[in-house]
Amino acid sequence: MEHVIIVGAGVMGCSSAHRLLEAGFKVTLLEKSIPGAESSAAAAGILGAQSEVSETGPFFELCLASRERFREYAKELETLSGISIDYEDSGVLEVALDPAEGRLAIARAEWMLDRGLRVDVMDREQAKKIEPALTDYMVGANYYPDDHQIDPIRLASALAAGVAKLGGIFKSGVVVSGLAVENGTVVGVETDYGIMPCDRVVIAGGAWSSNLTGLKAVRTKIKPMAGQIIEAETRPPLFRHVVYGFKGYIVPRADGRVLMGSTLEDRGYDKAVTLAGINRITSMATEMIPNLAQARLSKTWSGLRPAPEDGKLLLGAAKELKNLFFATGHYRNGILLTPITAEVICDLMLGREPKVDISSFCP
Fold this sequence. Notes:
Elements: E1 3-7, H1 11-22, E2 26-31, H2 39-42, E3 46-47, H3 58-81, E4 92-96, H4 99-114, E5 120-123, H5 124-130, E6 140-144, E7 148-149, H6 152-165, E8 169-172, E9 176-182, E10 185-191, E11 194-197, E12 200-203, E13 222-233, E14 242-244, E15 249-252, E16 257-261, H7 275-288, E17 296-308, E18 314-317, E19 324-328, H8 338-349
Helix pairs in contact: 1-6, 1-8, 3-6, 3-8
């Protein structure tokens, strides 16, 4: 039985472990914190293959493939772990607040319709008919009925519980500093507890993925990009659909919680929540849904998105080192890309051709 070490136990690490354990590998996950405590838990959970991707191409196709798998993936995880990830067919409304945004939204809808995807282009009255809480001052909206949502914290919990049930080993509080390499082959990882040997390694360390010694000729580096989020409470719920604007997003939960985000800040590993960030987010949210001004503030937080410097995630086998794989750099779409990433990593480990084209994302 081959032993795989996965560096990072967020949703990428745990989902990859899930599939590898099913395929008969022994898997150990190394995590400096606790499973799912970093960017996985800080996300909003929008499955926005259409609302969050701005152009056609390989990345868009990867997002669509992962979204297509998510409903069954949610059922599978609940059966395995006993934990629901709160999959909701909420749909996403992309709101245009002025004519310029309206033209951009219509242009996006046109190429998506050409691709055969569902988009409803709505004027103000049509949008308010399905979501009355929206502002009277918008010019229109695109409705993406196939973009849904899940709860990322519950996703991380379900994955960790499922991996444990399948026999995966978690080692928390372990800092991985580098790779152990012999004759061009990865034979383990270097940690603060010494070298841990294995047969293969998967780098799924999110914003910390590039901080390892021994990496050779990787296509791009991963850096942290901070994003602040606000949670408020509205009882009863004010609205049902995810609302996406050109300045941010608003995600309603069924229990009346509302997530609003997010900033985009290049400030290293600083996860501070700032007054400027809170002001920017609340201004965006109340501009699109004015009654949110009366919502009760619940909590705030900030997470670190793993941003690839060249704009493309790292997914696949390393070119210069044998037995090394990457599942990182998903930036703003990590939750959405969880099922397809795990599938690709497992296929590659088993010597199978992935069902999606990953040539643009190879390390």
